[in-house]
Specification:
Distance between the termini: 32 Å
Low-confidence stretches: 19-25
CATH class of the largest domain: Alpha Beta
Radius of gyration: 21 Å
Shape: globular
Largest sheet: 8 strands, mixed
Mean pLDDT: 93
Oligomer: single chain
Number of helices: 17
CATH superfamily of the largest domain: Mur-like, catalytic domain
Strand content: 15-25%
Number of domains: 2
Strand order of the largest sheet: 4-3-2-5-1-6-7-8
Length: 431
């Protein structure tokens, strides 16, 4: 098969939650275990850091990868979803897995004597585990796909488990309360393996405490010894005065990165305690070059100036709340919001959070999961949000750009899949 034919096989023959929603979600670990056995358990050949959470797990995973890589370690990084190229999901020292490897792995997998039907994510996880072994990584950072307890990445025994935070999202799979969702995320906590929790209060914290106690895992809550004393914006960087690592600058400038950086610094301290060599100087260098080191984007990414164009991947209540808070403190004349959402999101609670003084350009990503622009426009109107609808992200962005003046701000977001198409057009110079 060609690379394109291989991707079509992965998506068409193996359901993908990203494209098909609920019918692509396949909880349970048995198939992942079976695939792992067929590959001779490659994930046991290198240490792993496992990262879960409702928001921030991508930022935390990429920051940690950048820090370890800049300190001389060969780092595997498995994240999801991708924006433009499937291969973004599987990287070693920032370099994407090769097309030839993807084709070879899938062709070999098709020859396995296995009666089951692996999902897209199960097969992709197995590919990542095998690739990192073949690449002889020093450490791998594995981001949970969805949830934790029943996610196909949860067959591993890591050296460190990280849970960034808990908020309401994917309730149809993970539960309707914060405690139920926390219980699913807590499923990545393993016996005797140190666990770090970024943000958790009250009954949510109790869920993690009880889980850790039951399996004998030492647990650290970042808020108990917050490594960040102060954070502020300085031009293109978010600055941090830390308690143990001096003053740091980070090129990820979303206000929500304060909590993520605190989680990362706590994880760094835990890794140093395990014998990893991480210098403050090299860590500081890594945090201002995350995009170059790992390829991360879509986290309050400034695309252009005059007018300012910002792309962000927030797509649930907690994420949108953080975005609107930062927008309220941003300097601009008029705000233009290019937004599209997945139909399975809690829009009755998300839409009221969006700015009422903005001009909206309602659109939709080209995926069956997307809410149609016409339906989004109608739903938004009931919450006092006014604007036109467009059949594509490109048309919506073009309209916003035509209407915006130099002192305005254009925000593009609402969904990872809106950003995927937006970034693809940027990469292809079609917008």
């Amino acid at each position: 098969m060609t690379y394109e034919e291989t991707l079509n096989y992965l998506y068409d023959q193996r359901p993908a939650f990203e494209r098909q929603g609920a019918q692509g979600y396949k909880p349970g670990l048995q198939t992942a275990i079976d695939l792992d056995n067929l590959c001779h358990n490659p994930h046991r050949l290198y240490p792993i850091i496992h990262v879960a959470g409702t928001n921030g797990k991508g930022s935390v995973s990429n920051m940690l990868a950048a820090i370890l890589q800049n300190n001389g370690y060969r780092v595997g990084l498995f994240t999801s979803p991708h924006f433009v190229d499937f291969r973004e999901r599987i990287r070693v020292n920032g370099k994407m897995i090769s097309k030839d490897y993807v084709v070879k792995f899938v062709e070999e997998a098709r020859q396995w004597d296995y009666a089951g039907e692996p999902s897209f994510f199960e097969l992709t996880s197995a590919m990542a585990f095998q690739y990192f072994a073949d690449q002889k990584v020093d450490v791998a950072i594995i981001e949970v796909g969805l949830g934790g307890r029943l996610d196909s990445t949860n067959i591993i025994t890591p050296i460190l488990s990280i849970i960034t935070n808990i908020s309401i999202d994917h309730t149809e799979f993970l539960g309707n309360t914060l405690e139920q969702i926390a219980s699913e995320k807590a499923g990545i906590i393993k016996p005797a393996v140190p666990a770090i929790v970024g943000e958790a209060q009250g009954s949510v914290r109790q869920v993690f405490e009880h889980t850790a106690q039951d399996c004998g895992a030492p647990i650290t809550f970042v808020s108990d010894d917050d490594p960040v004393a102060e954070a502020w914006h300085d031009g293109p960087h978010l600055m941090f005065l830390t308690r143990r690592h001096g003053t740091l600058a980070c090129e990820l400038t979303g206000d929500y990165q304060r909590a993520n950086v605190a989680t990362v610094l706590t994880a760094v301290d835990a890794l140093i305690a395990q014998g990893y060599t991480i210098s403050d100087e090299l860590m500081a260098q890594a945090l201002v070059h995350i995009h170059d080191l790992t390829g991360l984007r879509g986290r309050w990414t400034v695309i252009a100036h005059s007018p300012t164009v910002i792309a962000d991947s927030a797509h649930n209540i907690a994420g949108i709340t953080a975005v609107t808070t930062q927008l309220a403190n941003y300097s601009y004349n008029r705000l233009h919001m290019v937004v599209g959402f997945m139909a399975d999101k809690d829009l009755q609670h998300i839409l009221p959070l969006l700015p009422h003084d903005a001009t909206y350009y309602f659109t939709e990503a080209h995926t069956p999961r997307a809410l149609k622009a016409e339906a989004l426009q109608a739903m938004a109107a009931t919450h006092g949000l006014q604007g036109e609808r467009f059949n594509s992200i490109g048309e919506a962005y073009a309209a916003a750009k035509a209407a915006a003046r130099h002192s305005d701000l254009i925000y593009v977001g609402g969904s990872m899949y809106v950003l995927a198409e937006f970034f693809e057009m940027i990469d292809n110079h079609t917008i």
